[in-house]
Amino acid sequence: MNSLNKNEDNIEYKQLFDHISKYSKEDWEKLIGSEEIKKLNLDVRSWIDNIENDSGIDSDIVEIKNLLEILENISTFIPWGDLKSKIQLLKVKIKKLYFKKPVILFQGRRGSGKSSLLNAILGHEKAKVGDYTIGTYQWEIYDHKDITMIDARGYGDPENSDRIIEEQVKEIIQQYPVDLILFTHKAEETSARLGEEIEKLNAIVNIINDTSLVILPVMTQCDKIDTRAEFSVEEKLRKIEGARVNLYKNVKLLNQDFDLNILVDEILPVACEPSLSEDLKYKWWYNVEGIIRHIFQVLPERSKVKFSFISEMTDIKEDVIDEVIFICSILTGIIGAVPVPFADLPVLAAVQLFMVQTIRKISNSNRGHLTIAGSVVVKSGLGLKVIARSIAKLTGIGNVINGIVAYSGTYSIGKLAKKYYFFDEELTNEDVEKLKQDNCSDEEKTLENA
Question: 155 near 137, Cβ under 8 Å?
């Protein structure tokens, strides 16, 4: 689990804030051009106006994609010099805030445990939304509000091969851009028809037209390797490991002809269907959390926040919350450092409100208003200008905006929101006073080191 160290982050990104803030308003006009600045100002104002009337804590998460695109546009005008690699890394991190709905495609033979694995990931029975009929088989689409899962069942079966219409498959892929393929294979059959299955994977990857697409192999139904009661759990686990090694060798050998991006070294054994025997019911709900963690690790950055919405694992949720706090703090630091067109509180407040709403959503919290010692600080129905004043009062940043002040204030709000929504703890006046002191101390330390 990642942990945030505010002082270290201040030191690391102080260079970025300093680099941006060294340009005067006149410099910015030369870099960007007065007409482009007018357009950027109009874009920012339009964005603020669109979210101004419905921007409380209880409303849907504020849409900041347009703001990120504006920042991306501005970044192209800035001569970054030695900081170019740092800004590129930041752009990769910022992709998390685009909130793409993850799309996971399940490929494997019928009866290979795809449905059980799908249910295990969702944490409940799947909700089937629709089928796509292609030839004599169907691709089943399970569409959750925060994740889409596709079961490519029957794809490439001999009885269907002459009826498959590639254009129809392409249409499905275009509607649901795939982020990850889970390749399921039964633990009892580590070689049976494996070559055929990898050929099918290759065909699907060719249709998707992305050879870098990650394929995560999953060895399913590990509970069925040996059901004899006289075997101890330790003996069964040794048999599972033996099957995993066999599958690893076979997949690695067969994939040489295709060179697909199969994470063959990371084959994961799993049992998603508890045994009918009560004494084994818990024992053989096996490695499901490991699968979910691994999916989270290999998903594209843009899909990780949405995945955390549906995950019930607190370590994944906390990891994403910390990343959101960090990224939003850096974003507001950049906004505070740029003299045009961002230097006003409503723009900062929009990013901060987005952060608080996201933390609440990840936490699956039923709490609405952000309250301190029983008093509502930020509530539903407030416009951004009012929220900006509330947040300024909360953090003590006042109307003076620069990179470090904006960064520190946003980080403080993030810590408060995490405590309130994720840990479900009440906030006190002492919390606020301590954070105000921390903000002041951080700013003074940064200025001393300048």
Answer: yes
Residue 47: name the closest of 19, 31, 75, 68 by CA.
68
User: What are the phi and psi torsion angles at 21 (to 5°)?
Assistant: -75, -15
Please, which residues bridge with residue 106 across strands?
Answer: 151, 182
Instruction: Name residues whose C-beta falls within 8 Å of residue 23's C-beta, 6 or more positions apart in sequence.
Output: 31, 78, 339
153-162 as b/e: b if 16+ CB within 10 A: bbbbbeeeee
Q: Which domains does the chain have, with CATH numbers?
A: 6-99+305-449 (no CATH), 103-299 (3.40.50.300)
Give me the tens of pLDDT residue by residue for the chain, a chain 450 residues long: 344 444 555 556 778 888 887 888 788 778 888 788 778 778 877 777 776 655 555 556 777 888 888 888 778 877 877 788 878 888 888 888 888 899 999 988 878 888 888 888 887 655 444 445 544 356 788 888 889 998 876 555 555 553 454 666 777 888 899 999 999 999 988 888 899 889 888 988 988 888 889 999 999 988 888 766 666 777 888 888 999 999 999 999 999 999 999 999 989 998 876 544 444 344 446 788 889 999 999 999 889 999 999 888 999 999 999 999 999 988 888 888 877 665 566 777 788 888 888 998 999 988 876 665 555 455 444 455 555 556 666 555 555 567 777 888 888 888 888 998 999 998 887 877 776 666 554 444 443 443
Closest CA to 104 of 304, 268, 272, 289: 304
DSSP bridge pairs for 103? 148
Q: What is the DSSP string of 46-72?
A: HHHHHHHTS-STTSSPP--HHHHHHHH
Can you tell me the distance from the alpha carbon of 167 to that of 188, in angstroms, rounded to the nearest whole number? Answer: 35
Return d(Cα 250, Cα 245) in angstroms, integer. Answer: 9
Distance CA 94, CA 266 (A): 27
DSSP 324-386: HHHHHHHHHHHHHH--SS--SHHHHHHHHHHHHHHHHHHTT----SEEETTEEEE-TT--HHH
Q: At 86, give phi and psi (nearest 5°).
A: -65, -40
> CB atoms < 10 A from the CB of 174, how many?
9
DSSP, res 428: -
pTM value surpassing 0.85: no
Q: How far is CA 308 from CA 146, 297, 360, in A?
A: 9, 11, 12
